[in-house]
Amino acid sequence: MKKVLIDCDPGIDDALALALAAGSPDLDVVGVTTVGGNVDLELTTANALALREFLDLGDVPVTPGSAGALLHRTVRAGHVHGATGLGDVVLPAPVRPLSDGHAVDFIMDALRAAPGEITLIAVGPLTNIALAVRREPRVVEWARELVIMGGSYTRGNHNPAAEFNMLADPEAAAIVFEAGWQVRQLGLDVTLSALVTTDVLDRMRPLGRLSELLVPAAQFYGVVTAEGGPAIHDACAVAYVLDPSLFTCVPAVVNVETMGTYTRGMTVTDFNLRGREANALVATSVDVKGFWDLVLGAYGRLGRR
Ligand code: BDR
Ligand code: CA
Protein backbone atom coordinates (compact mmCIF):
# COMPACT_ATOMS: atom_id res chain seq x y z
CA MET A 1 0.00 0.00 0.00
CA LYS A 2 1.50 3.35 -1.04
CA LYS A 3 0.98 6.36 1.19
CA VAL A 4 0.13 9.54 -0.71
CA LEU A 5 -0.49 13.14 0.27
CA ILE A 6 -2.46 15.04 -2.38
CA ASP A 7 -2.04 18.80 -2.75
CA CYS A 8 -4.77 20.10 -5.05
CA ASP A 9 -7.06 22.91 -6.21
CA PRO A 10 -10.38 21.20 -7.04
CA GLY A 11 -11.05 21.80 -9.89
CA ILE A 12 -12.89 19.28 -12.07
CA ASP A 13 -9.89 17.14 -12.96
CA ASP A 14 -8.60 17.39 -9.38
CA ALA A 15 -11.94 15.89 -8.31
CA LEU A 16 -11.52 13.07 -10.82
CA ALA A 17 -7.96 12.52 -9.56
CA LEU A 18 -9.22 12.30 -5.96
CA ALA A 19 -11.87 9.83 -7.14
CA LEU A 20 -9.13 7.69 -8.69
CA ALA A 21 -7.19 7.71 -5.42
CA ALA A 22 -10.33 6.97 -3.39
CA GLY A 23 -11.18 3.97 -5.58
CA SER A 24 -7.66 2.49 -5.45
CA PRO A 25 -7.11 0.03 -2.60
CA ASP A 26 -3.34 0.20 -3.26
CA LEU A 27 -3.25 3.81 -2.09
CA ASP A 28 -3.46 5.09 1.46
CA VAL A 29 -4.36 8.79 1.26
CA VAL A 30 -2.79 10.32 4.38
CA GLY A 31 -3.93 13.87 3.70
CA VAL A 32 -5.44 16.30 1.24
CA THR A 33 -4.10 19.85 1.22
CA THR A 34 -5.52 22.70 -0.79
CA VAL A 35 -4.15 25.67 -2.64
CA GLY A 36 -5.74 28.59 -4.47
CA GLY A 37 -5.59 27.82 -8.17
CA ASN A 38 -8.44 27.02 -10.49
CA VAL A 39 -10.66 29.04 -8.15
CA ASP A 40 -10.07 30.83 -4.85
CA LEU A 41 -8.76 28.90 -1.84
CA GLU A 42 -12.11 29.08 -0.01
CA LEU A 43 -13.73 27.26 -2.93
CA THR A 44 -10.96 24.71 -3.57
CA THR A 45 -11.05 23.90 0.15
CA ALA A 46 -14.85 23.67 0.29
CA ASN A 47 -14.74 21.37 -2.73
CA ALA A 48 -12.05 19.15 -1.19
CA LEU A 49 -14.12 18.89 1.99
CA ALA A 50 -17.26 17.93 0.09
CA LEU A 51 -15.31 15.47 -2.07
CA ARG A 52 -13.81 13.74 0.98
CA GLU A 53 -17.29 12.69 2.06
CA PHE A 54 -18.75 12.10 -1.40
CA LEU A 55 -15.78 9.88 -2.32
CA ASP A 56 -15.81 8.03 1.01
CA LEU A 57 -12.29 9.09 1.93
CA GLY A 58 -13.06 8.56 5.61
CA ASP A 59 -11.13 10.61 8.12
CA VAL A 60 -8.40 11.79 5.77
CA PRO A 61 -7.51 15.30 7.01
CA VAL A 62 -8.26 18.18 4.64
CA THR A 63 -6.02 21.16 5.41
CA PRO A 64 -6.15 24.54 3.68
CA GLY A 65 -2.98 26.14 2.37
CA SER A 66 -1.86 29.13 0.34
CA ALA A 67 -4.41 31.48 -1.13
CA GLY A 68 -2.22 33.01 -3.80
CA ALA A 69 1.08 32.87 -5.61
CA LEU A 70 4.36 33.69 -3.86
CA LEU A 71 5.05 36.87 -5.77
CA HIS A 72 2.72 37.88 -8.50
CA ARG A 73 -0.94 38.54 -9.04
CA THR A 74 -3.44 35.75 -8.94
CA VAL A 75 -4.39 33.79 -12.06
CA ARG A 76 -7.57 31.71 -11.97
CA ALA A 77 -9.26 29.23 -14.33
CA GLY A 78 -12.93 29.66 -13.40
CA HIS A 79 -13.71 29.97 -17.10
CA VAL A 80 -12.66 26.30 -17.42
CA HIS A 81 -13.91 24.84 -14.12
CA GLY A 82 -16.97 27.05 -13.51
CA ALA A 83 -17.58 29.62 -10.79
CA THR A 84 -17.43 27.06 -7.94
CA GLY A 85 -14.63 24.97 -9.47
CA LEU A 86 -16.76 21.86 -10.01
CA GLY A 87 -18.70 22.92 -13.10
CA ASP A 88 -22.42 22.58 -12.41
CA VAL A 89 -22.03 19.68 -9.98
CA VAL A 90 -23.45 20.42 -6.53
CA LEU A 91 -22.22 17.92 -3.94
CA PRO A 92 -24.01 17.27 -0.65
CA ALA A 93 -22.88 19.66 2.08
CA PRO A 94 -20.13 18.01 4.14
CA VAL A 95 -20.73 17.24 7.80
CA ARG A 96 -17.16 16.95 9.06
CA PRO A 97 -14.96 20.05 9.50
CA LEU A 98 -11.65 21.14 8.08
CA SER A 99 -8.48 20.31 9.97
CA ASP A 100 -6.86 23.06 11.99
CA GLY A 101 -3.54 24.41 10.85
CA HIS A 102 -1.96 25.16 7.51
CA ALA A 103 -1.18 22.87 4.59
CA VAL A 104 2.53 23.72 4.68
CA ASP A 105 2.80 22.58 8.31
CA PHE A 106 0.74 19.50 7.54
CA ILE A 107 3.05 18.56 4.64
CA MET A 108 6.21 19.08 6.72
CA ASP A 109 4.87 17.20 9.74
CA ALA A 110 3.50 14.28 7.72
CA LEU A 111 6.77 13.79 5.84
CA ARG A 112 8.89 14.23 8.97
CA ALA A 113 6.86 11.58 10.77
CA ALA A 114 7.32 8.99 8.01
CA PRO A 115 10.56 9.63 6.14
CA GLY A 116 10.79 7.78 2.84
CA GLU A 117 7.19 6.57 3.00
CA ILE A 118 4.92 9.27 1.59
CA THR A 119 4.61 10.20 -2.07
CA LEU A 120 3.62 13.82 -2.54
CA ILE A 121 1.20 14.33 -5.43
CA ALA A 122 0.78 17.99 -6.42
CA VAL A 123 -1.87 18.80 -9.01
CA GLY A 124 -2.29 22.54 -8.52
CA PRO A 125 0.04 25.54 -8.43
CA LEU A 126 3.15 24.56 -6.44
CA THR A 127 2.89 27.30 -3.80
CA ASN A 128 2.44 25.00 -0.78
CA ILE A 129 5.20 22.65 -1.88
CA ALA A 130 7.64 25.51 -2.47
CA LEU A 131 6.90 26.99 0.95
CA ALA A 132 7.39 23.59 2.59
CA VAL A 133 10.77 23.25 0.83
CA ARG A 134 11.82 26.72 1.99
CA ARG A 135 10.64 26.17 5.58
CA GLU A 136 12.12 22.68 5.88
CA PRO A 137 14.54 21.67 3.10
CA ARG A 138 14.63 18.11 4.46
CA VAL A 139 11.14 17.47 3.02
CA VAL A 140 13.05 16.75 -0.19
CA GLU A 141 14.77 13.79 1.51
CA TRP A 142 11.72 12.76 3.49
CA ALA A 143 9.35 12.54 0.52
CA ARG A 144 9.37 9.16 -1.17
CA GLU A 145 8.73 10.97 -4.45
CA LEU A 146 7.17 14.18 -5.73
CA VAL A 147 4.77 13.62 -8.61
CA ILE A 148 3.25 16.67 -10.26
CA MET A 149 0.80 17.51 -12.97
CA GLY A 150 2.26 20.58 -14.62
CA GLY A 151 4.23 22.04 -17.46
CA SER A 152 5.09 20.60 -20.84
CA TYR A 153 8.11 20.37 -23.11
CA THR A 154 6.11 21.17 -26.22
CA ARG A 155 3.36 23.69 -25.50
CA GLY A 156 1.21 25.61 -23.03
CA ASN A 157 -2.52 25.67 -22.40
CA HIS A 158 -3.08 28.93 -20.54
CA ASN A 159 -1.06 30.58 -23.30
CA PRO A 160 1.22 29.16 -26.01
CA ALA A 161 4.19 28.86 -23.64
CA ALA A 162 2.82 28.00 -20.20
CA GLU A 163 0.67 25.33 -18.62
CA PHE A 164 -1.78 26.64 -16.00
CA ASN A 165 -0.23 25.20 -12.79
CA MET A 166 3.19 26.56 -13.76
CA LEU A 167 1.88 29.94 -14.86
CA ALA A 168 -0.20 30.34 -11.70
CA ASP A 169 2.99 30.39 -9.60
CA PRO A 170 6.19 30.26 -11.66
CA GLU A 171 8.46 31.22 -8.75
CA ALA A 172 7.06 28.38 -6.67
CA ALA A 173 7.54 25.98 -9.56
CA ALA A 174 11.14 27.17 -9.99
CA ILE A 175 11.84 26.58 -6.28
CA VAL A 176 10.36 23.09 -6.49
CA PHE A 177 12.32 22.07 -9.59
CA GLU A 178 15.54 23.43 -8.06
CA ALA A 179 15.05 21.74 -4.67
CA GLY A 180 17.24 18.69 -5.24
CA TRP A 181 14.74 15.91 -5.87
CA GLN A 182 13.88 14.34 -9.19
CA VAL A 183 10.41 15.65 -9.91
CA ARG A 184 8.12 13.15 -11.63
CA GLN A 185 6.49 15.44 -14.18
CA LEU A 186 3.24 14.58 -15.91
CA GLY A 187 2.78 17.47 -18.29
CA LEU A 188 0.42 18.37 -21.11
CA ASP A 189 2.51 16.18 -23.43
CA VAL A 190 0.85 13.13 -21.89
CA THR A 191 -2.21 14.50 -20.12
CA LEU A 192 -3.68 15.72 -23.40
CA SER A 193 -3.85 12.07 -24.46
CA ALA A 194 -6.06 11.07 -21.52
CA LEU A 195 -9.27 12.27 -23.12
CA VAL A 196 -12.83 11.61 -22.01
CA THR A 197 -14.26 10.35 -25.30
CA THR A 198 -17.88 9.22 -25.78
CA ASP A 199 -16.69 5.67 -25.15
CA VAL A 200 -15.09 6.65 -21.83
CA LEU A 201 -18.17 8.68 -20.86
CA ASP A 202 -20.40 5.68 -21.62
CA ARG A 203 -18.26 3.60 -19.27
CA MET A 204 -18.76 6.26 -16.56
CA ARG A 205 -22.57 6.36 -16.87
CA PRO A 206 -23.46 3.10 -15.05
CA LEU A 207 -21.35 3.90 -11.97
CA GLY A 208 -24.23 4.69 -9.62
CA ARG A 209 -23.94 7.74 -7.39
CA LEU A 210 -20.36 8.38 -8.57
CA SER A 211 -21.61 8.97 -12.11
CA GLU A 212 -23.51 12.01 -10.77
CA LEU A 213 -20.09 13.61 -10.27
CA LEU A 214 -18.11 12.11 -13.14
CA VAL A 215 -20.50 12.56 -16.05
CA PRO A 216 -21.64 16.19 -15.59
CA ALA A 217 -18.13 17.23 -14.50
CA ALA A 218 -16.58 15.75 -17.64
CA GLN A 219 -19.29 17.24 -19.84
CA PHE A 220 -18.83 20.68 -18.29
CA TYR A 221 -15.07 20.40 -18.78
CA GLY A 222 -15.24 20.02 -22.55
CA VAL A 223 -17.07 18.76 -25.57
CA VAL A 224 -17.05 14.97 -25.57
CA THR A 225 -16.78 13.37 -29.02
CA ALA A 226 -15.80 9.97 -30.33
CA GLU A 227 -12.39 11.33 -31.38
CA GLY A 228 -11.68 13.44 -28.32
CA GLY A 229 -12.91 15.32 -25.31
CA PRO A 230 -11.59 16.99 -22.20
CA ALA A 231 -8.30 15.80 -20.71
CA ILE A 232 -8.45 14.81 -17.05
CA HIS A 233 -4.89 16.04 -16.48
CA ASP A 234 -4.61 15.57 -12.72
CA ALA A 235 -5.70 11.93 -12.77
CA CYS A 236 -2.49 11.19 -14.72
CA ALA A 237 -0.40 12.06 -11.65
CA VAL A 238 -2.34 9.61 -9.48
CA ALA A 239 -2.26 6.99 -12.25
CA TYR A 240 1.52 7.36 -12.42
CA VAL A 241 1.82 6.56 -8.72
CA LEU A 242 -0.45 3.55 -9.13
CA ASP A 243 1.29 2.18 -12.22
CA PRO A 244 4.38 4.01 -13.52
CA SER A 245 4.72 1.42 -16.29
CA LEU A 246 1.78 3.10 -18.08
CA PHE A 247 4.07 6.03 -18.86
CA THR A 248 7.33 6.41 -20.75
CA CYS A 249 9.52 8.81 -18.79
CA VAL A 250 12.78 10.45 -19.80
CA PRO A 251 15.27 12.18 -17.46
CA ALA A 252 15.73 15.87 -18.19
CA VAL A 253 16.92 19.17 -16.79
CA VAL A 254 13.85 21.36 -16.39
CA ASN A 255 14.05 25.07 -15.66
CA VAL A 256 10.99 27.21 -15.10
CA GLU A 257 11.01 30.57 -16.86
CA THR A 258 10.07 33.27 -14.36
CA MET A 259 10.88 36.41 -16.32
CA GLY A 260 9.95 36.13 -19.98
CA THR A 261 7.44 38.63 -21.25
CA TYR A 262 5.72 35.95 -23.31
CA THR A 263 7.16 32.80 -21.75
CA ARG A 264 6.66 33.19 -17.98
CA GLY A 265 5.74 29.80 -16.53
CA MET A 266 7.24 27.85 -19.40
CA THR A 267 9.05 24.64 -18.40
CA VAL A 268 12.22 24.77 -20.48
CA THR A 269 13.15 21.11 -20.84
CA ASP A 270 16.56 19.84 -21.86
CA PHE A 271 16.72 16.11 -22.54
CA ASN A 272 20.37 16.45 -23.43
CA LEU A 273 21.89 16.12 -19.99
CA ARG A 274 25.52 16.79 -21.01
CA GLY A 275 26.74 15.28 -17.74
CA ARG A 276 24.30 17.20 -15.55
CA GLU A 277 22.06 15.46 -13.05
CA ALA A 278 18.44 15.29 -14.16
CA ASN A 279 16.10 17.23 -11.85
CA ALA A 280 13.03 15.75 -13.53
CA LEU A 281 11.72 12.53 -14.94
CA VAL A 282 9.44 13.78 -17.68
CA ALA A 283 6.56 11.69 -19.00
CA THR A 284 6.63 11.59 -22.80
CA SER A 285 3.90 9.07 -23.62
CA VAL A 286 1.08 7.16 -21.98
CA ASP A 287 -0.62 3.84 -22.67
CA VAL A 288 -4.08 5.34 -23.12
CA LYS A 289 -6.00 2.06 -22.99
CA GLY A 290 -4.12 0.96 -19.86
CA PHE A 291 -4.75 4.37 -18.30
CA TRP A 292 -8.50 4.19 -18.79
CA ASP A 293 -8.69 0.56 -17.67
CA LEU A 294 -6.93 1.59 -14.45
CA VAL A 295 -9.04 4.74 -13.93
CA LEU A 296 -12.40 3.21 -14.81
CA GLY A 297 -11.58 0.12 -12.73
CA ALA A 298 -11.06 2.37 -9.69
CA TYR A 299 -14.19 4.38 -10.46
CA GLY A 300 -16.12 1.11 -10.80
CA ARG A 301 -14.96 -0.07 -7.36
CA LEU A 302 -15.92 3.24 -5.81
CA GLY A 303 -19.26 3.39 -7.63
CA ARG A 304 -20.24 -0.06 -6.36
CA ARG A 305 -19.65 0.84 -2.69
C1 BDR B 1 -4.02 21.90 -14.80
O1 BDR B 1 -4.57 23.20 -14.60
C2 BDR B 1 -5.77 23.12 -13.89
O2 BDR B 1 -6.73 23.91 -14.49
C3 BDR B 1 -6.16 21.67 -13.85
O3 BDR B 1 -6.82 21.35 -12.64
C4 BDR B 1 -4.85 20.95 -13.96
O4 BDR B 1 -4.24 20.78 -12.70
C5 BDR B 1 -4.03 21.60 -16.29
O5 BDR B 1 -3.26 22.54 -16.97
CA1 CA C 1 -5.53 20.98 -10.64
UniProtKB/TrEMBL annotation:
Pfam family, one: IU_nuc_hydro
Annotated Inosine/uridine-preferring nucleoside hydrolase domain residues: 4-293
UniProt KW keywords: Glycosidase, Hydrolase
Matching InterPro entries: Inosine/uridine_hydrolase_dom, IUNH, Ribo_hydro-like
GO molecular function (one): hydrolase activity
Family matches, as PANTHER family: INOSINE-URIDINE PREFERRING NUCLEOSIDE HYDROLASE, URIDINE NUCLEOSIDASE
Protein name (record): Nucleoside hydrolase
Organism: Nonomuraea spiralis
Lineage: Bacteria, Bacillati, Actinomycetota, Actinomycetes, Streptosporangiales
